[in-house]
Amino acid sequence: MDTGKRISAKSISVEVTDIIGSLLERGLMDGVMALKKSGKGYAYSLLTKGAEMTDVDPLAPYLPTSAANIAAKLSRKGTPKKKIALFVRPCEMRAIVELIKLLQVDEALYFVELDCPGTLPSKYLTEHSIPNSDEFLNSLDKYRDSIRPACSACTDARTDQSDVAIRFLGTDGQLYILGKSEKGSKLVKNLFPDAENIEELSLIHI
């Protein structure tokens, strides 16, 4: 059982972006790293209280760089003095775990893992713009042949190693925010005072 909150979501992206806004505006986090529109693609951006959220799309199907590298940079000078959450994909979370073992990433950072149906390669940008996450999630068959080969071969669309997990694949329009560590559970309870015990979901492959 995990401490969590279930939300009926018409737009997964809007709900997740609203969560980021709440984390910042309520002072639960000093900074949040998430994907934000940049040109035809997306880039990781460190958001702070009052940041413009219009172009933020944490679930955008693009991997500009590994969040593990960013986590390592944030840890380079020792334990971060401010509370920072990184919204990451499962493959990035696995890389972060390995860097934690090597003492290159500080565990004081908060890691929020997002379900991932795959990403589009950089070469896709030569002829197209990266779609927003709602368009991508609602039209997966349209983009399936364009997904990065590494993503197509991936069989691990979830891990159990983050502080907080956001689940939406195979949930019939429900969004689950689950605390996966002690500090993650505390964060979820602070964010959602009505959080309850929720059984972890079995991934439905798409």
List the helices and strands and how they pair.
Layout: E1 2-8, H1 12-25, E2 31-38, E3 41-47, H2 67-75, E4 84-88, H3 90-101, E5 110-114, H4 133-138, H5 140-143, H6 149-153, E6 164-167, E7 174-179, H7 182-191, E8 196-198
Parallel strand pairs: 2-4, 4-5, 5-6
Antiparallel strand pairs: 1-7, 1-8, 2-3, 6-7
What does this structure look like?
There is one protein chain. The protein is α/β, with parallel strands linked by helices. Helices cover 29% and strands 22% of the residues. It has 7 helices and 8 strands, in the order E-H-E-E-H-E-H-E-H-H-H-E-E-H-E. It has an 8-stranded mixed beta sheet. Strand 2 and strand 3 form a beta hairpin. The longest helix has 14 residues. The protein is globular, with a radius of gyration of 16 Å. The two termini are 24 Å apart. The model has no long low-confidence stretch (mean pLDDT 92).
